[in-house]
Amino acid sequence: MAVETALHDGAASTSDEEDKASASPPSVWDQRPTKYKSVLWSVCGYVLLMELAERLSYYGINQGLKNFMQMKLGWSAVSANSLKSTWTSLVYMSPLMGAYIADEKWGRYPTITTFGMLYLVGDGLLAVAAHPSVLAHRDVAEGIFIFGLFGCIGLGTGAIKSNVITLGADQFNPTDASETHQKATFFSYFYWCINFGAAFAYGYLASLSVNGSSIVPVDLGYFACFAICTCVMALALLCLRLGRARYIQVPPSSDAMSQLVRVLWQRRTRNVAASRIVWGFGLFLLSFGLNIVAAVSVSGRVVLSLLAGVASSVAIVCWVVYGQRQIGDDDDDNVTHDNVIVDNVIVDNVSAKTSSSAREDTDAVQKVVRILPFAAFTIVWGCVSDQIDANFQSITQQCDLRLTATTQVPGAMLGIFDPLAIIVLIPVLESGVYPLYERITLSPPTAFGKTSAGLALAAFWMFYVGLFEIVRRRSGPVDGNARDAGSGSPMNNLHWAWNVPQYVGVALCECLINVTAYDIFYTEVPLHLKSTAQAINLFTVSMGSNFTSIFTLAFGQYIPNDLNVGHVEYMFFAVGTLALVNVAAYIVVMRRMQFGMSASGYGLVAASDDGTEERTLTASDISSDADRDTACSSDDDHPHSV
């Protein structure tokens, strides 16, 4: 009896210990000191205001770059367009650095504030470079301009881009149904804020840059524009700071982006898929490097740009083909018996605990690998989207921009129709079109459906713009040889308003593709890799801009400063053809993967651990990863943990 009692007590004690050990620590959302009825507005309102102000600053700089480089620094149209696209590539590539620092070192909020200050300095340097007294010394102005643009703004804005949206999305508890719904709305309003800021920049600031105002002389237009951008960026940082006490700050993990790099690098010698994915990253970086050299080269541009295009194309194929495969499967049949095999992950002479950790690492990275095919297909879309700031503007500036005999619409100002259309379209889609679609089909639109429609429309608009350019060129010059005030280019007899449909059309594509991509890149991956996933999303935008620069350089002989003696439509037809191939391949591959087909939420589907079945992601998938990171947050090696 005594023995039985002892055994019973021992079993009870063991059971209690197991219960304690298995009990999950409270999540970061449970530890929020104040519960808010509307996290979207009470907490994320500060993030949304910050994004609106920061985007106003960014697009205020962005809209004026082409004309500033041509009219103030004296560069050619090809050089200005190419360098602008290269800078855009840097802006969307540096989020990888920001994601690494945020996910592994500092956390999201400290990363945003630190690089936000660098961004602020860059805005100030551009204002200095644009002052007439500095422009009088061309070499000095160019040096300050290039350093501020690439060394400060390029790195600063890029490093915060992958973290602002993630910081906002982190505020919503994935186990709370109402907050999960608010999170989906947050992505739409986040994109709305981006475009509200852009609308002001392309509206007022575009006019101020070229024409000045009643209190700003024309020669101080760009200086005033860049100075306003500096002040607005300071306001953005202030908005973020005001909400600091309300934020959930997910602690950094000691092994986030490093985990992704390490697992892929280690698996590359045993798994073909891992090897080709690594190749893809390398080829993208090679393409970016070749394109930078081409942009600053006097000769050999076409050859270098073609090599860059080949490298990018092969990289896209690597991601699309091998992103569908399992990186945990070992391709080497000659494996020694000294190895331990755990769920297809080979671990050399290690403990079971280490084997389990290796399996978890591989499973986490597999979820990131699975989004790479989707990411690859958005690269060609990025090339289409980037045409608005690159070659659309060149076409617009050679239309009839006259309002009266003495006034005209700044060509860059027509870029306002893209963000204005988005401001209108997002509420229309969310409140009208999508609910109507659901009533008709009895199921919500899926991520696959939205993206397919967006990619198909993107191809259509490239052919439309190519045909539009032919009509514009054949319309002949306006009477009196009038010229655009911003670029000095001769204007033709086609009214500027005929440009509006292409801006609105591309805006619709953005609503269908970009908003969906935000949610996919956040929801599909573990919590500790969310900034990394957003950085990959932005990296593909960078590669899209890289493609734009490649096409611009490759077709440079058809894109003179005066488009009336060129054939820029050749480039648009080439991009349109590539976009058609892209959407066809997207439909085939996504159907094969069954990626984004579910009507639940955005229809995000995740592979099971063995890779043979599909299942819909649930809140518990994210929650369990949140618990994992919360448990890690107590470690002593996270100085920024909250």
UniProtKB/TrEMBL annotation:
Membrane topology: Multi-pass membrane protein
Provenance organism: Aphanomyces astaci (Crayfish plague agent)
Disordered, as annotated region: 1-31, 610-642
Alphabetical UniProt keywords: Membrane, Transmembrane, Transmembrane helix
Protein name stated in the entry: Major facilitator superfamily (MFS) profile domain-containing protein
Compositional bias per record (Basic and acidic residues), positions renumbered to this chain: 625-642
Family, similarity comment: Belongs to the major facilitator superfamily. Proton-dependent oligopeptide transporter (POT/PTR) (TC 2.A.17) family.
Major location (coarse): membrane
GO molecular function: transmembrane transporter activity
Record-annotated membrane-spanning stretches: 189-208, 220-240, 277-296, 302-322, 412-433, 453-471, 536-558, 570-589
Keyword Transmembrane helix applies: yes
InterPro entries: MFS_trans_sf, POT_fam
